[in-house]
Amino acid sequence: MAPPYPAPPLAGALGLHLWRESVLAAVHALTMDGACLPSGAGASRKAAMASTPTLLAPEALQSFLSQHTEWKHEGGMIRRTFEAPSFLAGITFVEKVAQAAEKADHHPDIDIRWRKVTLALVTHDAGGLTARDTALAAEADRLFSEVVRAQ
């Protein structure tokens, strides 16, 4: 069975490179306009891209950090390490954060080291921190308290 894309038109490395770039450009274009995404996902992607979030004002970041003292501003992102009472409690916390992240369509970097879970947040498409980051961070704080209380 033939592949669903044309073979490289030129022989050699240059031909293969040009062919690869044209295939990648076609895939990117189809994905960005939603043609290859699950039903309804294209519209969501377009809407999200059309409204790039506003970067957080320095005063708003300082206000958040003063209220959430365990979060630190490092390397252009906010980061916090949570220490769960047990490994399984840490995994439960990660699952709850993952569900909140999916709902918000905003996904943190998550690092799990036994009972320690580190979350790092930044809005990549905005090029820095936005209210989406501080909102998910505050929700993570709430979820962690919930998990600890359940132990």
The count of β-strands is 4
Widest sheet: strand ordering: 1-2-4-3
Mean pLDDT: 80
SSE pattern, N- to C-terminal: HHHEEHEEH
Distance between the termini: 56 Å
**Overall tally of structural domains:** 2
Tell me the CATH superfamily of the largest domain: Transcriptional coactivator/pterin dehydratase
Structural class: alpha+beta
Might you state the CATH topology name of the largest domain?
Gyrase A, domain 2
Instruction: Please mark out the parts with pLDDT under 50 across 5 or more consecutive residues, or reply none.
Output: 13-20, 22-39
Text of the CATH class of the largest domain: Alpha Beta
Rounded Rg: 21 Å
Annotation field: number of helices: 5
The helix content, as a percent range, equals 40-55%
Q: Name the shape in a single word.
A: globular
> What share of the residues does DSSP label as strand, in percent?
5-15%
Q: How is the main sheet built?
A: 4 strands, antiparallel
Write the layout of secondary structure elements.
Elements: H1 12-32, H2 41-50, H3 58-67, E1 72-74, E2 77-83, H4 87-104, E3 109-113, E4 116-121, H5 131-149
Antiparallel strand pairs: 1-2, 2-4, 3-4
Could you write a compact summary of the structure shown?
With 151 residues, the protein is an alpha+beta fold. It is 52% helix and 14% strand.
Describe the fold and architecture.
The protein has 5 helices and 4 strands. About 17% of the residues have low confidence. The protein has 2 domains: 39 residues, no CATH class; 92 residues, Gyrase A, domain 2, CATH 3.30.1360.20. The N and C termini lie far apart (56 Å). It has a 4-stranded antiparallel beta sheet with strand order 1-2-4-3, with helices on one face. It has 151 residues and is α+β, with helices and mostly antiparallel strands.
